[in-house]
C-alpha cells in the first residue's frame, strides 16, 4: 500500500453491488453468495469446473455452469491455516478463480478452524470468524481500509507516484515480469495488492498458472472485484481474492513461485516479519519483487541522514509515519531473511528490488 497523497478528487463511491448468484455447493457453513437470497447447499457431487459470467439485472453477475467433471471430495490446498500453517482441506469446486473459491469451504484439520468467503474474497486472517474480538493495525495500515482511500487509489492517488520517479503501471509491470521470467507458469501472489492494479495485469498476461490478489483491506479487495467486473474479465480467469495479514501469510512453506509487492513495504507494520514470511512461503528458486520509496530528506526529514536513522525507533511510533528505507537497508533485510541474488533498479526515489529463495 502506499503513502503519497492524491490530488483532490470528488468522492462518489460506486454502489458495491456484489449480487452474485449461484446454485452450486459450498460447505463448512459457507454463506450464500451476496444477493442470492439463499444458502448454498452441499450437493455432494455436481458438474461445474469452468464457469461463465453473464450480466444479471441491476449490474449483478450470474455464474453459469459449464458441464465439466467436478471432484467434490476434500483435498489439500496451497492455502494454509494462518494459525498453525497446516495446509487447509478444501471441499468444493476445484480451481483458483472467483466462483470456485467462493463456492468452496476450507478447514484446518489440526485446529479445526473453518474459513469461507466473505463478500467477494476469501478471509484467511487469524481473526476470521471471530465474533467478539477485534484489533486495529497502525494508522498507516488502517488508512487503506477506508472506503474513500480504496475508491481513490486508482483514481488519482497512485498516479501521483510519478512525481517520485515511479515509471507507471505498464512499465513497472514489464520490469516485474522480467524478474519473474524464471518462474513463469507458477503461482504468483500479489501481496498488499490494493485495488488489484497489478494483480489484474498479472492474471490477464497468462504467464502464471494462478494469481492470488492478497490484501488486508476489505475495501481494497472489493474495489479489485469491481474493476474485474468493469473490465469484463472472464470469471474463470485464474485470479483469486484473499484477505490476509502480510506477517501471517496463509500458505504452506515452499509453496509459492512468485511474490510481488507494489509500493507496499513502507506501509507494513513490521517489514522484517513480512519478508521473513515471504521467504518462508517461496519455493526454492522462487522470486520476490517489490517497489517502494527510498528514504529522502523530503519523506524522512532528518532521518534520511545515516547517523540519525536509529532515532526512528524512538520517534517513529510517536508520529505513525511510514517506513522509508535506504537501498542498503532493503538489501540487508532481504539477505537477512534468507534471500539471495539481490538486485535493484533505482529512478530518483523509486526502487524496484528483487531477491530469490535459494
Automatic annotation (TrEMBL):
UniProt feature coiled coil, ranges: none
Localization: Plastid, Chloroplast, Plastoglobule
Keywords, alphabetical: Chloroplast, Methyltransferase, Plastid, Transferase, Transit peptide
Classification via SUPFAM superfamilies: S-adenosyl-L-methionine-dependent methyltransferases
Gene3D superfamilies on file: Vaccinia Virus protein VP39 (3.40.50.150)
Main location: plastid
GO molecular function, one term: S-adenosylmethionine-dependent methyltransferase activity
InterPro entries: Methyltransf_11, SAM-dependent_MTases_sf
GO cellular component assignments: plastoglobule
Name of protein: Methyltransferase type 11 domain-containing protein
Any one GO biological process: methylation
Domain Methyltransferase type: 189-289
